[in-house]
């Protein structure tokens, strides 16, 4: 579920009136997503998405996220464009939460991506990286290599209740990644959570990228590694090299990899797998009683991590040097 906050009808109508989008006709809560409360708003001017930012989003980061979407949309990246209210602001307050309205994107996310989808994703990701190059703001990645150990510390004592030996395996992986994590790779704005449920398609054509609320400034190839993890494994968690090759080749046709990025890819993929293993483990151990949210399986990412540990070069991902 992702409607944590109920909004009174008159407050919603007053909020919508701040924008030049005609009268409010209807508003429905959206069940998907886990972080924020989202509503589909219909007005005389069309459909929009209203988001109320819940506690995991730091309000200080909102100008970065909203400014980034505005910047990318102006450079032909199909992403939600924040609406600007009559007072010139993109951010308002509704039901005591920071709130914004963005444009609605057509398309659906793909439950079982095929190589064609992975190729479209690769090209879209590279285009996003290029389009973000002149975005003037920056945001530190709050879930990068130096943040993983403090995050793990919160779950270490209970990790073995999820899988025997998990605490030790994560601790060893952390040691290895902290020692070897590459610095100095080409960096800029990355999405950092470009999973299939954040990418809309119409047929095999990519129609939109959403959910920029983990976006930050970090290595481009790390974003690619996140996508390799999220898009290129089968439901039985076997690695699909055809999908990886499609993703990576489409990416590099738009933005070629440097030799250092090429070499770093297996390590970055391990790091990306560990990042999602750790956030999922944290959430798995803290499901609030009675919550309607289904936590995501941390062990899926343990298996992906083990795969990347067995990889010695980017050619295992279908990439020729
Ligand atoms: N601009 C948009 N156009 C169309 N639908 C959208 C848009 N933004 C969000 N949605 C719908 O709302 C759902 C939830 O959005 P989103 O993934 O941003 O929520 P969240 O709670 O922040 O996410 P998550 O749990 O993935 O971090 C999406 O799956 C999609 O169905
Ligand atoms: N994409 C994340 C959750 C939302 O950010 C995951 O699958 O763990």
Question: What would you say this structure looks like, in words?
Answer:
- There is one protein chain.
- It is built from nine helices and nine strands.
- The protein has 321 residues and is of the alpha+beta class.
- It folds into two domains: 95 residues, Phosphorylase Kinase, domain 1; 203 residues, Aminoglycoside 3'-phosphotransferase, Chain: A, domain 2 (Alpha-Beta Complex), CATH 3.90.1200.
- The strands form three sheets. A five-stranded antiparallel β-sheet has the order 1-2-3-5-4, with helices on one face.
- Helix 3 runs antiparallel to helix 6, helix 6 crosses helix 8 and helix 8 packs antiparallel against helix 9.
- The chain is globular.
- The protein binds adenosine-5'-triphosphate and L-homoserine.
- The site of L-homoserine (HSE) has 6 residues, from helix 8.
- Pathway: Amino-acid biosynthesis; L-threonine biosynthesis; L-threonine from L-aspartate: step 4/5.
- Keywords: Amino-acid biosynthesis, ATP-binding, Kinase, Nucleotide-binding, Threonine biosynthesis, Transferase.
- Pfam families: APH.
- GO terms for molecular function: ATP binding; homoserine kinase activity.
List keywords for this structure.
321 residues; alpha+beta; Phosphorylase Kinase, domain 1; Aminoglycoside 3'-phosphotransferase, Chain: A, domain 2; five-stranded antiparallel sheet; two-stranded antiparallel sheet; 9 helices; 9 strands; 15% strand; binds adenosine-5'-triphosphate; binds L-homoserine; transferase; ATP-binding
